[in-house]
Design a protein that fits this description.
The complex is a heterodimer of chains A (about 725) and B (about 300). With about 725 residues, chain A is an alpha/beta fold. Chain A folds into five domains: about 110 residues, no CATH class; about 160 residues, Rossmann fold (3-Layer(aba) Sandwich), CATH 3.40.50.410; about 120 residues, Sandwich (Immunoglobulin-like), CATH 2.60.40; about 210 residues, 3-Layer(aba) Sandwich (Rossmann fold); about 80 residues, Immunoglobulin-like (Sandwich), CATH 2.60.40. Chain A has an eight-stranded mixed sheet with strand order 19-18-20-21-27-26-25-23, sandwiched between helices. Chain A has a five-stranded mixed sheet with strand order 6-5-4-7-9, sandwiched between helices. In chain A, strands 28-34-33-30-31 form a five-stranded mixed sheet, with no helix packed on it. In chain A, strand 26 and strand 27 form a beta hairpin. The two termini of chain A are about 50 Å apart. The relative contact order of chain A is 0.12. Chain B is an alpha/beta fold and about 300 residues long. In chain B, about 40% of the residues lie in helices and about 20% in strands. In chain B, the strands form three sheets. Chain B has a six-stranded mixed sheet, sandwiched between helices. In chain B, strands 1-2 form a two-stranded antiparallel sheet. In chain B, helix 2 packs across helix 10. The chains are: A alpha/beta (about 725), B alpha/beta (about 300). Chains A and B meet through strand 2 of A and strand 8, strand 9 and helix 9 of B. Strand 2 of chain A pairs parallel with strand 8 of chain B.
């Protein structure tokens, strides 16, 4: 017999109150309460008599009635022995992409269904499905038949889930379970990276027994995969190119064939020998996208060196969404689901640059002849600068030399640009006190010009110094890795300002050979600020004369402009939140962009424009929907308008492609904690015995209440008889 | 009011206001003029007239003599501040068979009557007492039971004070020392303190508190309220006596214990009379079986004559 109401014991203490009152109110007779007893302190103290209970029958009736009322309101919850649940089990079913190897998911699903069906009535079962986010597929309270029906509909996914999250969900389910024994069964492939990435998590499984079903029989499986595609435009003269990098991972495969297609056109088709190559390679390709003249040059490099074949092809136009696929084939390959990688790029939109510089090189680099179609440049008049221009008239990027920052109007305009997510390229060609103070506000400290106290800053021949380091993984410099855009190491900088910035607020992108930062990106402002510590004058650098200058300026302007870039790369099943309805005109052209009607729904369409899902759009909260589980390219449209507003490239996590398995994971031992020793567990009473002892039913509540009322009635009767007897 | 005082009829007067009025008229009948002269009319010095000063305080005679405009300054430019301090210790709740009320009832009535009288002559009257349900001044460990009304000349103060007095309850234990400490802390210097107590508290601290009053320049009038049972101990039968404050019990032998009781009580009274004589504090014994108005009248008349 157990009582769900835990305050029963406290309520039972209330039964002591009548005893206390009974004794407390026992007042001796013939006592005079007097105020001046201090004058009688020589009188003896009275003898205290033994405490005697009066009216014991009355007292007993009161006590019993009270106890019965307390017991009745404690609501005894009694279970029959045959209905008692002694064990709670949670089955974690791994449905991540790596489970598609040799039909592992289907095998595990059958095992879970059998385990649920075969367990006795003393066992309650729940099933947690591990996909992108773990979810409860079957609850403890679910009927066995309904649970089996629900399990039979489960499918493997292309998502990446976390074992830790699944175990946490299972642990929280077990915390609310009835069984004294709590167990978790994991049905998965036991990917090694699933166990190692959360090894340091604090223990959270208390007194839970974990069983790893069907541990891996091999340590690794052969696999080929492509993932993490990164794609961008760059421009050379009036030609537009695409730069693509994609990660190729291989394990146990010696030969691979890679094919890159943009739309229905093939860009690259090559075979690679993977013998003695690093396990992860960066495949890089560049091609021209406008139809006028194709550009040669595609290569594969790895961070640790090495190169492979090249292949010239021609891609699509830069005025439409660029959609492409990279595919790799090879044998043996146990997981073909990760052999494709999808990428997309929004169409190029012309940006606006405001120029405040005396450098003739900058004027030429940003002139309409060079930047036509990508950037329109407006040369500002320093005497007629209005910092309070309307927001829509602010340039996308402001390029200025620091000498102009001595004007308050220019400083105001620059700050306004930065505060409104516009980009700024600031060239510190002069460091006057006013400029130094302004840079200090931005978080930079100018230490002085180069060569003042640093003998390393100038080479012996007086030609300046080159770049010692540039951030190769930064979006501005990634296209330079192939060497087709010019050699940055040939750039010479004769003089620059030595700059120091507060850590965390900025990151240097280029260092001089003396170790001084030459280009710094500030992280303090909303808009992106790229600060050059040198000007682009002929006495300061020869960079404008190098072939890398124009591509660099274009990439730097692109980077500075896109403070909030459009996210096009997603994982399967990820939650997408679309804030702004107008993503881009895309394939609908400029006419669709001009007039965007009120949007009520965002539609996700698959191949051939097939509608997959709709999400209501709210002007404040935007639209939220799950990205489709199948990797591929998906279009976003509005309502019933077929114009494509955005394209989503959905690719699985490369972690799922690493088919390495762990037999006895260390993380599991770290997550578990035991508060009950084995001896305590063995010495515990048998729950069936306890249940047998609880031979009462819930209807006893009425009997308890009835008994209490009867006793109270008897007590009243007794009191009445006693009072009448005492009356003269 | 010439009829003899009947305790039972007096006790039957329903409200504190009626009783207080009865008592006030009774003691006014026996005195002539105000028995209280506060320090407010004592001349201190002169100072030069400043524009804006009240011309009533200008000394015209001095001006006539010396051709100087001077303002007369007094020790204190308000009327007397009086504090009614009521002992609410448990012993004050005693009521013998011959009394018209408990000692606390008697103290309430006298305090109300005196407050009435003082307010009529434009003196400021305040109240200090300890009561379990009070707690208007949050200060110290006893803040939860301190009942304090600051002195005020407003006539509405009487109603408020009567309400507070009627709501007063026994503090439950010995509370005289605490009351005296609170009164000494709250009273302004050179105030008039009217204390209603039975003094039945065996503590050196009581004497120290009275000496402290004197040191602070207060003028203190002690009204010792006693039940006739405490004065003559009329109990003949042996029985168990329980102390109201400490709860201690004694087996008292009745008439046999009376002599010892009376001798100790007389010594107690002598010691306090000596203390108050040394401290120059007027001391009056008020019995709860007598007319409180006449007792007050006699006491205040003798004070007025001094």
């Amino acid at each position: 017999m157990s009582f769900l109401f835990p305050w029963l014991l406290l309520g039972a203490v209330v039964a002591g109150i009548p005893v206390w009152l009974h004794l407390r109110h026992r007042r001796p007779k013939n006592i005079l309460r007097f105020s001046a007893l201090r004058f009688l302190d020589d009188q003896p103290r009275p003898q205290r008599g033994a405490v005697r209970l009066r009216d014991p029958l009355l007292l007993a009736a009161r006590l019993l009635a009270l106890l019965l009322v307390v017991a009745a309101f404690a609501w005894p919850f009694l279970r029959d022995a045959e209905d008692l649940v002694t064990e709670s089990r949670v089955h974690i079913l791994d449905a991540t992409m790596s489970q598609q190897v040799e039909g592992a998911f289907a095998d595990d699903l059958e095992a879970v269904r059998a385990a649920v069906a075969d367990s006795g009535p003393e066992v309650q079962n729940a099933v947690v499905l591990l996909a992108g986010e773990p979810s409860v597929a079957v609850r403890f309270s679910d009927d066995r038949a309904a649970a089996d029906g629900r399990l039979s509909t489960l499918e493997p996914t292309h998502q990446r889930g976390s074992y830790l999250e699944a175990f946490r969900l299972a642990g929280s389910l077990l915390d609310q379970s009835l069984g004294q024994q709590k167990k978790i069964f994991l049905y998965g492939d036991h990917q090694a990276n699933q166990w190692t990435e959360h090894e340091s998590a604090p223990p959270f499984l208390r007194d839970v027994e974990v069983t790893l079903e069907d541990p891996p029989r091999v340590r690794a499986r052969p696999n080929l995969s492509l993932g993490e595609p990164q794609v961008r435009y760059f421009f050379l003269g009036d030609r537009t190119f695409v730069d693509l990098s994609v990660e190729l991972a291989h394990q146990g495969v010696e030969q691979a064939a890679v094919e890159i297609r943009v739309g229905d056109k093939e860009v690259l088709s090559e075979s690679f020998d993977l013998k003695r190559r690093p396990r992860r390679l960066t495949l890089r390709a560049q091609w021209r996208v406008d139809p006028s003249s194709p550009r040669r040059g595609a290569s594969a490099t790895s961070p640790r060196g090495g190169a492979s074949a090249t292949s010239p092809r021609r891609g699509a136009s830069a005025t439409q969404w660029l959609r492409g696929t990279a595919r790799v084939e090879g044998t043996p390959d146990d997981l073909p689901a990760d052999n494709r990688s999808y990428f997309c790029l929004p169409p190029v939109e012309e940006g606006r640059v405001a120029l405040l510089a005396r450098s003739p090189y900058l004027g030429v680099a940003l002139s309409p002849e060079v930047m036509r179609g990508r950037w329109t440049t407006e040369v500002l008049d320093p005497a007629a600068i209005d910092p309070d221009v309307p927001l829509e008239q602010l340039p996308d990027v402001l390029v200025l030399e620091a000498a102009y920052a001595q004007s308050e109007q220019v400083r105001s305009l620059m700050l306004r640009c930065l505060n409104n997510e516009r980009g700024v390229l600031l060239l510190v060609d002069r460091a006057t006190p006013l400029v130094k103070g302004f840079l200090r506000e931005l978080g930079f400290e100018v230490l002085g010009p180069s060569g003042d106290d640093d003998s390393r800053s100038r080479r012996a021949d007086g030609a300046g110094q080159g770049f010692r380091y540039f951030a190769t993984h930064h979006p501005i410099f990634l296209p330079f890795l192939t060497g087709n855009l010019g050699d940055l190491s040939q750039v010479q900088v004769a003089s620059y300002s030595r700059l120091r910035s507060r850590p965390g607020l900025s990151r240097p992108l280029i260092y001089s050979s003396a170790g001084e930062p030459l280009l710094v990106e500030s992280r303090k402002t909303k808009g992106r600020l790229l600060l050059f510590t040198f000007g682009f004058g002929p006495r300061q650098t020869d960079w404008p004369l190098q072939p890398s200058f124009i591509p660099f300026m274009d990439l730097a302007l692109q980077y500075a402009r896109s403070a909030t870039p459009l996210e096009t790369s997603w994982r399967p099943g990820e939650l997408y939140t679309l804030r702004s309805p107008t993503v881009t005109a895309g394939g609908a052209g400029a006419d669709a962009e001009a007039a965007v009607p009120a949007v009520s729904e965002v539609v996700v369409r698959g191949e051939g424009g097939v509608e997959l899902r709709r999400a209501p759009f709210d002007s404040e909260r935007g639209a939220r929907f799950r990205v489709p589980d199948q990797p591929g390219l998906y279009d976003l449209t509005h309502d019933d308008d077929p114009a494509v507003r955005a394209v989503l490239a959905v690719n699985p996590s490369p972690k799922e492609s690493r088919l390495e398995y762990a037999g006895e994971p260390d993380a599991l031992a770290a997550w578990q904690v035991a508060t009950v020793t084995d001896e305590e567990a063995e010495s515990g009473a048998d729950p069936r015995l306890l249940a047998s002892l609880a031979a009462a039913e819930q209807r006893w509540w009425w009997w308890l209440l009835l008994g209490a009322l009867a006793l109270l009635t008897a007590e009243s009767g007794l009191l009445f008889l006693k009072t009448r007897k005492a009356m003269p | 009011m010439s009829a003899p005082f009947d305790p039972s009829r007096f006790a039957a007067l329903a409200t504190l206001a009626l009783k207080a009025r009865y008592v006030m008229e009774g003691f006014l009948h026996g005195i002539h003029g105000s028995p209280f002269h506060g320090p407010s009319v004592e001349f201190a010095d002169y100072r030069d007239y400043q524009p804006g000063d009240d011309l009533r305080h200008l000394d015209w005679r001095l001006y006539a003599r010396n051709d100087r405009l001077c303002i007369k300054r007094f020790e204190q430019e308000t009327n007397a501040r009086c504090y009614l301090a009521l002992d609410t210790s448990a012993s004050m709740t005693y009521r013998g068979a011959r009394a018209w009320g408990s000692k606390l009832d008697c103290a309430r009535v006298m305090a109300t009557a005196l407050a009435w009288f003082l307010l009529k002559q434009n003196d400021a009257v305040g109240l200090v007492a300890l009561s379990p349900g009070a707690g208007r001044v949050a200060d110290g460990d006893s803040a939860g039971r301190l009942c304090y009304l600051p002195p005020s000349q407003q006539s509405s103060r009487l109603g408020r004070m009567m309400a507070e007095l009627e709501a007063l309850d026994s503090a439950g234990d010995a509370a005289l020392v605490e009351l005296l400490q609170h009164t000494g802390r709250l009273a302004h210097r050179r105030s008039l303190i009217l204390l209603f107590t039975d003094l039945l508290e065996p503590s050196e601290e009581v004497e120290l508190a009275f000496k402290r009053f004197r040191f602070d320049g207060h003028e203190c009038l002690v009204f010792q309220v006693l039940d006739p049972d405490e004065i003559d101990f009329p109990f003949d039968d042996p029985g168990v006596f329980e102390d109201l404050e400490s709860g201690e019990r004694r087996q008292v032998a009745g008439a046999d214990a009376r002599d010892a009781y009376l001798s100790r009580f007389a010594a107690f009274m002598r010691r306090h009379e000596e203390l108050f004589r040394l401290l120059e504090m007027p001391h009056a014994v008020i019995r709860t079986d007598q007319d409180p108005g006449k007792a007050l009248g006699r006491f205040l008349s003798s004070r007025a004559r001094r």
